[in-house]
Amino acid sequence: MPQLRLALNQIDSTVGDLVGNAEAIVHWTRHSAEQGAHLVAFPEMALTGYPVEDLALRSTFVDASREALRALAVRLDGEGFGELPVVVGYLDRSEKALANEPRYGQPAGAPQNAAAVLHRGRVALTFAKHHLPNYGVFDEYRYFVPGDTLPMIRVHGIDVALAICEDLWQDGGRVPAARSAGAGLLLSVNASPYEREKDDTRLDLVRKRAQEAGCTTAYLAMIGGQDELVFDGDSIVVAADGEVIARAPQFAEGCVLIDLDLPAAAVPGGTVDDGLVIDHVTLSADPLPAYEPELTGGYADRLDDDEEVYSALVVGLRAYVAKNGFRTVLLGLSGGIDSSLVAAIACDALGAQNVYGISMPSRYSSEHSKDDAAELARRTGLNFRTVPIGPMFDAYMESLGLTGLAEENLQSRLRGTLLMAVSNQEGHIVLAPGNKSELAVGYSTLYGDSVGAYGPIKDVYKNLVFRLARWRNRAALDRGQTPPIPENSITKPPSAELRPGQVDTDSLPDYDVLDAILELYVDRDQGLDAIVAAGYDPEVVTRTLLLVDRAEYKRRQYPPGTKISAKGFGKDRRLPITNRWREHE
Fold first, then answer.
1. Distance, CA of 160 to CA of 153 (rounded, Å)
2. Spatial separation of the C-alpha atoms in residues 282 and 154, rounded to whole Å
3. 129 is a catalytic site residue
């Protein structure tokens, strides 16, 4: 059987950085060539970054992407890699669809989520994603027109069918078409965002599609972060019978190299499944001289569930800070579990020297909370100071005479103002420490604890916050290091400490109950009757749903944060602020 050494480059890209992304592609192509690769691939829209959102509708950006692709082909050839086929994702437009404009329901300019094969200094083949996702964080019907071909390249006597991400996630299209066309390898380039437990779903999917395609299937993933999205890598190669033959690490940039024995090319032509027209280009017709396979691709160790989520939060924060040109972060340290976990994530993402924490005690702050904040700083080595808000609070109270909730919220808003003032003065970005449970029920103060540029645990329910804190401490002990989070921050009852003796359960159900209800209502869109039927108290469910519904205006004003669930607040869950529908009425 003909042989092929495939290089899957699992890399990070930055949206809009055409020059930087092209440099990364050249770097990893060079690495692949040095390792003897015969075919090199990069992720979906690696040249432009992903997702580009409304940049796709800007014709100047589409033109820049196309020009950058042509320049990249010339450069690869000039650096001696012209004979090495390179598959690269980029932003293109459909000239055929553009010729038919204006057309209702088609995005202006007919942009396409595309990929190209670069060879001998030119663009040898282009194709666009056939199946466009339009759910969750994806709006690709808004941005792109679909492709209508089955792209195939012949490389060293092997026919390689090409696909882009959703082409595998949806039934039909290029997967069965690859079988009909007699492909020896199906190569899919992807930028599929991370979600909890998605790695298992992804593995099952690729195994199923390989069997449907009747050929070895390579699923190349992206890593890194883009705004609230995280990409976890985990590229996979599966044989035609569904056996996994290689799997890349999670959350790590790198190149998977694997020697494959594949069927010899047939004679493709015509139209195949779903009306796709085969677009076939022969790059090298003759098989390689037989060689001894050396590279198996490997099977990277899998992260356990808590480590996987924690890694996603670290990668998401690191990417947001670095890609937006920042270096240091600032957060309030209360001694509580949320700010402690955020501080630990920030130290792991950026280094403790780039993390600044401020304790801002009031008359209601307990001594143990102040001590816990200081102990966290000592354990992690982050920069720490204490600025009491008492004098500021007293000045407001003397002028306004606030009471009750207004008095409580004033303390939070003073802390938010203080953090933003230091941020402006010293150039740090502020991290908001709110978790998904609090955001869901509105248990936060606008312009207070919700201030910030990024919310690292915005999509993490409170019970998972505790789990991640315990995992991080255990991981430190396993490495012979000091656990970063004081045990007292984990074991004491959660409290905002805005009035004497306050604990969260004064206002909210126990977090075990609250998080379970929220997961049913927020993540799974279950109604009141279904949640009660699941065994929860009708009064507690009714009250919780009312809190969630009333807090939509607060959530809209919260900063972005790392998405780890199938339905995070933001693009995943889009509800009107002005809305009189209530499940409980």
1. 5
2. 5
3. yes
